[in-house]
Each structure stands twice: as structure tokens, then as C-alpha cells.
Amino acid sequence: MAAGFPATGGLAEDLLLEYAEGKLANLESREKHLGEMFYWHSFLEPAFGQLSENQRKTLSLFFYEGYTLTEVSKELGEPLYNVRAYYYRGLKRLARYISGTCND
User: Fold this and answer.
1) CATH class name, domain 50-99
2) Of 4, 40, 9, 8, whose CA–CA distance to 24 is shortest?
3) How many CB atoms are closer than 10 A to CB 16?
4) Structural domain boundaries in the chain
5) How confident is the model at residue 5 (pLDDT cuts 50, 70, 90)?
6) Residue 13 pLDDT > 60
7) Residues 49, 50, 54, 56, Cα dihedral to 10°
8) To the nearest 10°, the Cα dihedral for 31, 35, 38, 39?
9) How many angstroms separate the Cα of 5 from the Cα of each of 8, 17, 26, 28?
10) pLDDT for 18-39, tens place per residue?
């Protein structure tokens, strides 16, 4: 049994504790990267202002909410081929912004 959790007698309780310990380890891992995430978010926020509304929604759902492009398509009520276009055009525009070549 891992440190910090009392020993239990039942298999179900042991499995529940292992699950909780795994979640705790995941949270600790995420916490380590929080500063880096804040940096990139503040850096990319003005870049997101350069995107169309559909590109912004698509990339936000994909990267910040963890949606797949199929799920984004359903959420926005758009065909998947449109969502893919928003995704790739948005990424290209962000790359141009980051490299300093975005003039529009």
C-alpha cells in the first residue's frame, strides 16, 4: 500500500485507493507544468485574437478541452471537413504569428 493511505481489508477498497493514488499522482504531475501552461496561454492569447471565430472555437475545444476533431464537429454543428479546415488554417496562422510573419 502506498504511503499516505491506510491499509484496508477489502479488494474493492484497495482498488479504490489505488485509483485515488493514481489520480493524486496525475494531479501532482500536472501541477509541475502549470507555470509553463500559463506562460504559453499568455503568449498565445493575442495570437488567438488573429483567428476567425471558427478557428478559435475549433482550436480551443481541441487543445484546451481535449475534444477530437469529430467531437468538435458535433459541438459546432459543422461538417468534419470544415472543422479540419478551421483546425489546419488556424494552426498555420498561429505558426505565422509566432514566427512574426503574420501581417493581417
Assistant:
1) mainly alpha
2) 4
3) 13
4) 10-48, 50-99
5) very low
6) yes
7) -50
8) -150
9) 9, 7, 16, 16
10) 666 666 666 556 666 677 777 7
